[in-house]
Amino acid sequence: MAARSEGVIETSEGEVRVLYTNFALAQVEKETGKSIIAFSEGFANGQTGIRDIAIALKAGMEAQRRSAQSGGRVVSLRDAFNALDDVGFGVVAATVMTAIAEVLGYGQMDDDEGDLDPNV
Known about the structure:
The chain is α+β, with helices and mostly antiparallel strands. Helices cover 56% and strands 13% of the residues.
């Protein structure tokens, strides 16, 4: 297991697959100039916009391309905007933010899972 989450966005051109890892989230931070927590909280306080979600989509698309090792050209921001234009902000934001939340939540245990430390 690892801190990673995948998603699929169905566009008129076919599937757009995204992968989020801590590295991909660091790319989002670098390109938006926001911490991933500030990026996430920005949906509630109006500080995260369309360009931000396109940057996050691009990071996920590029991480998926690299993971698949299928070659091809680097994913561009235009590629992300094409998908965003095709399916709309809501679909992209839901897919991207669900995956990001899964990466951020990795390793947290529910109260009913018990203690995972074998030394206790």
